[in-house]
Specification:
Layout: E1 9-12, H1 16-30, H2 40-48, E2 52-57, E3 63-74, E4 77-87, H3 96-111, E5 115-120, H4 125-134, E6 138-143, E7 162-168, H5 172-179, E8 215-220, H6 224-230, H7 232-251, E9 254-261, E10 268-274
Parallel strand pairs: 4-5
Antiparallel strand pairs: 1-2, 2-3, 3-4, 5-7, 6-7, 8-10, 9-10
Helix pairs in contact: 1-2, 6-7
Length: about 280
């Protein structure tokens, strides 16, 4: 059983042993041969230039999770790129992912960086729920094959398409999400057409067949990690189906606005709205 979140302390890493423990946790998460791990020296230097190298520590002082990000500038404004976040399996249901992001948010507010960027796999329903519904983040863009050369064991077999998140941490939307008052008007979109061909349907979708409604939905699997284990071919079909739909609607100037799971069926959907001309 996971430990309760109150038993963990979130703070910046400090000292050689903690930086090394973070490096080891990266290898535990993404594999011993993961060539993109961030070494202790960069974890330390990142802090010195306004970045975040923070950990979640249990009651015994053991590192069980971390978040790492770098601060820089984009279009003349101070911004932060959240590069890595991981939590050990036994603590993943203790809310530590959210707490680590909140620690990162406060740090960025303190230094005047009001937008945090990061990426996540659009097929990961749990991450979508966290990012949209718990954090109030927005989608900046969809990128196909963003990390083409990753050697992580977690990424094998499936093209690494990603959403780029823009978390505007001082916005009303984020404040409402963090307070638990960000409401979804599900009735306004639950009957919107599903844009992507369902992977169980062998008739491939054609671009001309995409609905042109002002609101559309894109379906994803309820548990992509389980599906990858049970049927990688189906997982690949989901990637192809969603990639085609997201790229089409991105080109057509639609915005991914919401994510929800149907309470009865468990089916998962993104909601896209056409932007005004």
């Amino acid at each position: 059983m996971p430990s309760h979140t109150a038993q963990y302390t979130i703070r910046q890493l400090s000292g050689a042993a903690e930086y090394k423990a973070c490096w080891e946790l990266q290898k535990q998460t993404w594999g011993e041969q993961f060539s993109e791990s961030v070494p202790p020296s960069i974890l330390m230097v990142g802090q010195k230039i306004g970045g975040v190298s923070a950990g979640a520590f249990d009651a015994d002082g053991k590192l069980v999770g971390f978040v790492f990000g770098l601060t820089g500038s984009k279009e003349g404004k101070l911004v932060h790129w959240s590069d890595m976040l991981a939590v050990q399996p036994h603590a993943r249901d203790a809310g530590l992912g959210r707490r680590l992001k909140l620690f990162q948010r406060q740090h960025c507010l303190d230094i005047g960086a009001h937008t945090i960027y990061w990426t996540f796999d659009p097929l990961e329903a749990k991450n979508a729920h966290l990012n949209f519904n718990k954090l109030g983040a927005n989608i900046d863009e969809y990128v196909a094959d963003m990390y083409v050369n990753s050697d992580s064991v977690l990424h094998r077999g499936l093209a690494m398409d990603r959403f780029v998140i823009a978390w505007r941490i001082a916005s009303d939307r984020v404040e409402k999400a963090l307070a638990g008052t960000l409401q979804q008007d599900i009735a306004s979109f639950e009957l919107a057409p599903i844009a992507n061909t369902h992977p169980y349907d062998k008739d491939a979708a054609k671009e001309s067949a995409y609905p042109r409604d002002a609101t559309v939905r894109v379906e994803i699997p309820a548990d992509i990690q389980r599906l990858k284990t049970e049927n990688m071919d189906r997982a690949i079909e989901w990637r192809a189906s969603t990639r085609a739909a997201f790229l089409h609607y991105q080109q057509a100037k639609y915005q991914v606005d919401a994510f929800y799971r149907e309470p009865d069926s468990g089916r998962c959907f993104y909601v896209l709205h056409a932007l005004s001309a």
